[in-house]
Specification:
Blueprint: H1 2-25, H2 45-52, H3 56-68, E1 72-74, E2 85-87
Antiparallel strand pairs: 1-2
Helix pairs in contact: 1-2, 1-3, 2-3
């Protein structure tokens, strides 16, 4: 059971790191410091899951946990039939 929890924790860290990298690759927001980029520039669940070689369902579940922890922002609605995610600035 402990190894399962550790594995889940590792996967969470991997997904957070992948999201951060994808957010950086999409470029800085155009509104200046503290502004969020346009929703179409936020990474999709599929992009994150592909980068981590994880199912889209596991990725989504972990991303929702990260939202609850205050580490990730979730798009307020579906954008072209997909959820979008963005790293929360500290």
């Amino acid at each position: 059971m402990n190894s399962e929890r550790k594995s889940r924790s590792n996967k969470k860290a991997e997904i957070l790191k992948a999201l951060e990298a994808l957010c950086l690759e999409n470029g800085p927001p155009s509104g200046g410091r503290g502004a969020l980029p346009e929703l179409h520039r936020w990474p999709k669940t599929r992009q994150i899951s592909d980068r981590c070689d994880t199912s889209i369902y596991v990725t989504r579940a972990i991303l929702l946990q990260l939202v609850e922890e205050g580490k990730v922002l979730k798009s307020p609605e579906l954008y072209f039939n997909s959820l979008r995610w963005y790293i929360r600035k500290r």
